[in-house]
């Protein structure tokens, strides 16, 4: 993403918020009163001083634009925290066919916010959005944390646009460093994006490594480079598939199908998709709706 001036940035924030508001309405995504209030506040703070509404004086709007409208000086985490909350709510409660386009402006806005953030705020945003240490008790993408839902979105069959946008967000949260990217989300989730963008996969990608769980310095733990799970958790826990329902197994097979197809499209490998092979041989039974 190219660097923008503050004037260009506020104009883009305005446009993204208008797109977001329209898409949320079309997708019938309901917001809590405090979330609606937050959107109105961001729209005002994100405007150029020449278009500031009477809610804030022109002088106040100029001051906000000179600093950063997405990080108010009194509480710099407030706006991003609420935007992420809206995003989380959409991921939880919106059908994929509506979510793909409805949440795109919101994800893009969060990416722009990270671009404008200072070092301290970037560190805070990484802790908010990247997998944490407790997420590594099981393979990344499992569970109901925000980071798990973001990872599932990157390879959801019906989220081609949002999935790529979320992958871009996670890559930027990893300082656009392929090695950090693999460490943060696991090779299984990172490989498709890296291949599609023509980014070389690190030679260490298939080697067990250490990570702090949120992209920041801290306690280091040995992790499986493919799944992102802690190695000590792998040794002690039962097989994840043993605890999966039939519906969960079907979703996992669908996810793997998408990952293999994306990998084949890059031309890096030429192998038959094992999920497709199982379907062709009649070994894959779809569950009734």
From TrEMBL:
GO annotation, biological process: G protein-coupled receptor signaling pathway
Entry keyword Cytoplasm: yes
Pfam families, A to Z: Ric8 (PF10165)
InterPro entries: Chaperone_Ric-8_A/B, Gua_nucleotide_exch_fac_Ric8
Cellular localization per UniProt: Cytoplasm, Cell cortex
Annotated segments matching region Disordered: 52-74, 202-252
Membrane-spanning segments: none
Comp. bias regions, Low complexity: 203-219
Keyword Ligase: no
A GO CC annotation given for this chain: cell cortex
The entry's keywords: Chaperone, Cytoplasm, Guanine-nucleotide releasing factor
Signal peptide: none
Primary location group: cytoplasm
GO molecular function: G-protein alpha-subunit binding; guanyl-nucleotide exchange factor activity
Similarity annotation: Belongs to the synembryn family.
Protein name: Uncharacterized protein
Origin organism lineage: Eukaryota, Fungi, Dikarya, Ascomycota, Pezizomycotina
């Amino acid at each position: 993403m190219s660097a923008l001036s503050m004037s260009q940035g506020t104009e883009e924030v305005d446009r993204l918020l208008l797109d977001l508001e329209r898409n949320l309405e079309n997708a019938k995504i309901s917001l809590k009163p405090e979330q609606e209030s937050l959107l109105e506040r961001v729209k005002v703070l994100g405007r150029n001083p020449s278009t500031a509404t009477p809610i804030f004086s022109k002088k106040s709007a100029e001051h906000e634009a000179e600093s950063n409208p997405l990080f108010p000086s009194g509480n710099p985490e407030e706006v991003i925290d609420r935007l992420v909350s809206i995003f989380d709510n959409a991921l939880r409660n919106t059908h994929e066919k509506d979510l793909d386009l409805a949440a795109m402006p919101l994800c893009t806005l969060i990416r722009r916010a990270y671009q404008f953030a200072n070092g301290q705020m970037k560190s805070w945003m990484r802790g908010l959005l990247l997998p944490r240490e407790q997420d590594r008790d099981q393979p990344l993408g499992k569970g109901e944390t925000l980071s798990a839902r973001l990872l599932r979105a990157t390879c959801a069959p019906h989220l081609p646009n949002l999935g790529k946008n979320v992958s871009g967000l996670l890559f930027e949260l990893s300082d656009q460093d392929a090695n950090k990217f693999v460490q943060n989300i696991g090779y299984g989730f990172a490989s498709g994006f890296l291949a599609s963008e023509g980014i070389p996969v690190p030679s260490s990608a298939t080697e067990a490594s250490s990570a702090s769980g949120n992209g920041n310095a801290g306690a280091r733990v040995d992790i499986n480079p493919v799944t992102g799970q802690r190695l000590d958790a792998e040794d002690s826990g039962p097989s994840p598939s043993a605890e999966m329902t039939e519906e969960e197994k079907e979703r996992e097979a669908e996810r793997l199908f998408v990952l293999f197809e994306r990998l084949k499209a890059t031309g890096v490998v030429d192998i038959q998709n094992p999920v497709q092979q199982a379907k062709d041989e009649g070994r894959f039974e779809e569950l009734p709706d």
